[in-house]
């Protein structure tokens, strides 16, 4: 089969939680393992996207470095994959502007990510214009920049969560509009394929009706990659479950218990139904003890690696610099073709 160009990105949000790790980042490592030698892999820390929300500059700088260290700690190999900061490659914003000039406003307005921002800003009875004035234009343009991230490398496969599927469809639309508007001898952009990563949705430990999230004010609701064994233990012990006897996997009826089973299965690389069966006649105490143990075992190595790598600032700078150089080498070719077609 033809070689693939696989691209994914993550915002620099500091230390990831178990949901980020199991739901997104661990898939990158699996992809890296399963890719063919001729497949190209690009993993990007998307600092420009982070600017759509208010950021403290010192915290953003730290978060960018921490995310790079995290990705190395969990096993992204900078010799195999192009690991880079999005904001180190100006071609992303350059292409983003070009795409914005062919992007239909109506399509952008229909993005559910935008609509939910707007809904959150909405005052009852006010005009859309008033609501929109509370939001920055970067939030509106977010999916166009994301399309540029993908297209600037002519990526063919984009593994992201299902909340991002609509953005990949927009990316295909923009690629297609560009290809039809600026016809050359052949279409310039391949239409990228959305790769649904078999992601596990990890729920909040304190409110298992919502997902584990960095934005929850309750720090007990999430396990961070850097949590110690005793922090993991106390968070799992305090996890909200139910008072039903025995253990069964029933995400609808028993979300808290099922979430613990999902975590246990993911951390031990086993099937959740099988795991549930093994705990059928056990109590929550036993389950929690084993979940805490499995999480600790699962996070031990990446945590140790992270603690070591985050201090190696010279190495981190070197990885970032080399990643940027390699990324730019690829995108430079695309940008030359794009500009030629545009008459620039
Ligand atoms: P958060 O919800 O904590 O703000 P982000 O929105 O920054 O996390 O998501 C970063 C990545 O992690 C995305 O690919 C997202 O799908 C994934 N992710 C976030 N939370 C979870 C979760 N609880 N379970 C599984 N995957 C998650
Ligand atoms: Na989020």
From TrEMBL:
List the Pfam families. Answer: tRNA-synt_1b
Q: Identify one Gene Ontology CC term for this UniProt entry.
A: mitochondrial matrix
Enzyme Commission number(s) from the entry: 6.1.1.2
- Source species, domain of life: Eukaryota
What are the protein's UniProt keywords?
Aminoacyl-tRNA synthetase, ATP-binding, Ligase, Nucleotide-binding, Protein biosynthesis
Question: Which transformation does this protein catalyse, written as a reaction?
Answer: tRNA(Trp) + L-tryptophan + ATP = L-tryptophyl-tRNA(Trp) + AMP + diphosphate + H(+)
The main place the protein resides is mitochondrion
One GO term (biological process): mitochondrial tryptophanyl-tRNA aminoacylation
What's its top-level EC category? ligase
Which compartments does it reside in?
Answer: Mitochondrion matrix
Write down the InterPro entries for this protein, in alphabetical order.
aa-tRNA-synth_I_CS, aa-tRNA-synth_Ic, Rossmann-like_a/b/a_fold, Trp-tRNA-ligase, Trp-tRNA-ligase_bac-type, Trp-tRNA_synthetase
A GO molecular function term, named singly, is: ATP binding
- Similarity-based family: Belongs to the class-I aminoacyl-tRNA synthetase family.
Protein name, UniProt field = Tryptophan--tRNA ligase, mitochondrial
Q: What is the species of this protein?
A: Suillus luteus UH-Slu-Lm8-n1
